[in-house]
Amino acid sequence: MSTALLTDRYELTMIDAALRDGTAARPCVFELFARRLPGARRFGVVAGTGRLLQELREFRFGDDELRYLRDHAVVSAETLAFLEGYRFSGTIRGYREGELYFPGSPILTIEGTFAEAVVLETLALSILNHDSAVATAAARMSIAAGDRPLAEMGSRRAGERSAVAAARAAYIAGFGATSNLEAGRTWGIPTMGTAAHSFTLLHETEEQAFRSQIDALGVDTTLLIDTYDIHEGVATAIRVAGPELGGVRIDSGDLPTVAAAVRTQLDELGATGTKITVTSDLDEFAIAALAASPVDSYGVGTSVVTGSGAPTAGMVYKLVARQDSAGGWVAVAKASADKGSMGGRKAAFRTLARGTATSELIVVSDGFEQVETAAEHPDARALQVTLVDHGETDASYEGVGGVARAREHHAFVREELPITGLALSRSDPALPTVYEDA
Amino acid sequence: MSTALLTDRYELTMIDAALRDGTAARPCVFELFARRLPGARRFGVVAGTGRLLQELREFRFGDDELRYLRDHAVVSAETLAFLEGYRFSGTIRGYREGELYFPGSPILTIEGTFAEAVVLETLALSILNHDSAVATAAARMSIAAGDRPLAEMGSRRAGERSAVAAARAAYIAGFGATSNLEAGRTWGIPTMGTAAHSFTLLHETEEQAFRSQIDALGVDTTLLIDTYDIHEGVATAIRVAGPELGGVRIDSGDLPTVAAAVRTQLDELGATGTKITVTSDLDEFAIAALAASPVDSYGVGTSVVTGSGAPTAGMVYKLVARQDSAGGWVAVAKASADKGSMGGRKAAFRTLARGTATSELIVVSDGFEQVETAAEHPDARALQVTLVDHGETDASYEGVGGVARAREHHAFVREELPITGLALSRSDPALPTVYEDA
């Protein structure tokens, strides 16, 4: 399925005009970055990169796409011919998926002709903005949960394909499982889930429902105990399953109170190993508030898939450098004060002191050449890698392997955050962004 | 592409247990509804129905899907055999797409066996929750904009496939166009867009960029005038295009002030017919605040695709009635007080007085038979139609035609709202939900 029309019309009309005036082939550098962190958070988490690389492979204008553009007179015949042969042949460098980012971090740097790079604006932003918003919220929940496992179960509160991407982003940022089967199939994420209230209501009694579930899924299953009275539900669950019952799930009520009462009741019934999962309207703050409660794991729905108040990361895709008609490089930026962005090509480093991050160092150059200043910053970690090299994608960032790699990288870089970076409250970014001329 | 794994795992494990205990084939009634309107809004707008009907056609477990479920031991061999033959053969009645809804409105009623109906929970909710959230926000913006055209341009702030659905939902709720080309192709929505700041920055001067755009797109195009100084931008635009220029776009600054200054300048230059489009961080409140400003049209991005603060409609999918082992019907509902829902099958009517809606009347019955009370409510409009009849989908609600029909229906039903229903401020729903026994 072609991804080429997941594009704002103005990208094609710009190509149309640029092909006509001769600027379409000018070498350009575009940058994808965030001006600020939504929700006054301490850090953002990059996610979606692997998905973008895969969708870039499908970014082709086939017969159907060209027919639509021709029938609706979107662009000229010359532009249709250009699009028919379109393949991105440029280079994309960027932050690894799972990496942290801060205001101004050059998350992706796209080099190519104007025409081949400008046309990726919408697709790149759609994917990175959505997935990074979810991953950022998920990372905060993961910090709040500590060692307790988190499962993502918010598919029903997200568009049906975004739900799959959300499960993937949450997994990269520290969740351990998802309820979404397509996310399991496509991205290799462990899936979980046993029964809803409808299963209990389908049966004449709660006891019949529990018995049926145990017959099918074994005594290690998790029983949902709050369809009717929770105290009765727990008693019935242990009567049916015995004290070896794997777990109970609570989906309503004042969770600290209910969890404590259920734990006491389970222990009194000898079910000391039976785990408690809670799943009712949790976000990072509710999870943090349950830290002292006898809860074994969390299921999070709406808040993680909607970015917990920040459903988009707000990243932008801007031209930052181009060649002029004489072949020299020029740094460019929009002048409007309220939307200022920094022109020029950038290299990014995270400076560290004894293993703890101290700044987001961004070295700015007017030129096209890759800025290599790692040697001048021996304590800094270089943040950018080559994702696409002259049209050739590094497949190690794609697919199931790419997800595993991103999850591992995220866990690694989160350890570098200063302790203040772990706080959930609104504040400034955990690291200052420092600009330096090349 | 199969949609069958866009499903939470627990739906399949419930089927697994129900097939084993003999309850899987019990006739059931599920209902999709909202307990409340997010954001304390006056009404909600149903959207996504036509998409659901299309994705229901693709809800088949093929070899790839079955292999994944088998390899990961999600369900038993017996359940795999059931899924292999799965086709929804039940009946879905519901609100027309574009209809208004209120707390408790039975937006969809799904009748079928437990197994065939429970498995649609996630897909139905993913689509309706997302699309209705966008449509509800869009309707409020459309009310705020009055007769001025609205364009949706938020694709970059939504997952790449949700972006297409968002454009569709906004169009149903009153927007006139979208920037998203895939939405144009798939759903027949007019597309718009001319140029971004990068096009100006690509050129040595703003004048060169404007000249190039006019050469390609004609003097009727819209020029983006705020890359550098807005006053200079307007002067350059008219110098290059002449007073016949189609429009200018402003994407930054304090819009009431800037729009007034640009209008004055355009008029002084004789460009009295040149239109002004504004596109900077608009939501329904910002649009309302521009009512007295000389603005001709609005472009809305982030806020419409993210539901303007309510990114999900929060609808749920609940078992409300089932047959018992003796073949009689039983109304069922979860008891937990904080998540109470009303059991029983429901028929819904909007009562009217002299053309203005007065209540959402919901007639509740325990039984399976369709409640036919329209005759008893001669001033009421019946809200439910048959979307799928024993497995046969009514194709008139699908595709481009379905979108056009939904848009028309929305415009019609919005006229019935009492005047207080048009207010943007937080309040109670515009209509009370009234329950009546059949």
Helicity of chain A, in percent? 25-40%
Judged by helices, strands and strand pairing, the structural class of chain A is alpha/beta
Q: Largest interface here, residues on each chain?
A: A-B, 105 and 106 residues
Write the CATH architecture name of the largest domain in chain A: Alpha-Beta Barrel
**How much of the sequence of chain A is in beta strands?**
15-25%
Mean pLDDT of chain A: 95
Distance between the first and last residues' Cα of chain A: 42 Å
The name CATH uses for the topology of the largest domain in chain A is: nicotinate phosphoribosyltransferase
Low-confidence residue ranges of chain A: none
Radius of gyration of chain A: 25 Å
Oligomeric state of shown chains: homodimer
Write a short abstract of this structure:
2 copies of one chain form a homodimer. The first copy, chain A, has 438 residues and is of the alpha/beta class.
Keywords for this structure?
438 residues, Nicotinate_pribotase-like_C (chains A, B), glycosyltransferase (chains A, B), Nicotinate phosphoribosyltransferase (chains A, B), six-stranded parallel beta sheet, phosphoprotein (chains A, B), TIM Barrel, 2 domains, glycosyltransferase activity (chains A, B), seven-stranded antiparallel beta sheet
